[in-house]
């Protein structure tokens, strides 16, 4: 598979053909998603450090898709996915109740629902996300997989098996997260908010998913993987992995 090296949005979308993508992506779709006038200003400010990640994810989403945005927070990725799937698609914006309460997300989520009719808000634990009426086409976990290990009652195998059952055959599960030192397992998930990539791959393989792409488009070799991801020295510049899994 070709590895996406350039971090520029236009180059990512215009020059790369991904082997796991079965459709052509119009670069204007991503451009329109970023340019949407109803996006909160605080989210627009984050585009500078997340465009490469978003461009990659939107490359795997098409109009009409049903997409689960796991641990979506106040919806940074959800707004962009909403634009990409269009009025015939649906974005399921999931957060645990504890996150909604602690981070006071309810107002932002209500605002997004009012602005975007193709958004459905799902408040549920990671291990008990309700099944959609129709299977998901794509599941997105953007820099929160490590957090699932910090939730009370976490069972990675149960969570991923449930998601496996909710994803259509041939559907994709895209995971972006912060590298922890190799061999560190899950020891950093609640300290520096990182996770060993091998743990993620093993988790998904045990649940039946196949790894079809392992990208280094968010590589930052200068990151020593030892600082908290919110430390100003590395925030927005952490060494991150991008994994794409497929349900056979």
TrEMBL record:
- The protein depicted here goes by the name Methyltransferase domain-containing protein
* Keyword annotations: Methyltransferase, Signal, Transferase
Enumerate the Gene3D superfamilies for this protein. Answer: Vaccinia Virus protein VP39
Q: Report if keyword Transferase is assigned.
A: yes
Signal peptide segment: 1-19
Q: Entry's Pfam families? A: Methyltransf_31
Keyword Magnesium among UniProt keywords: no
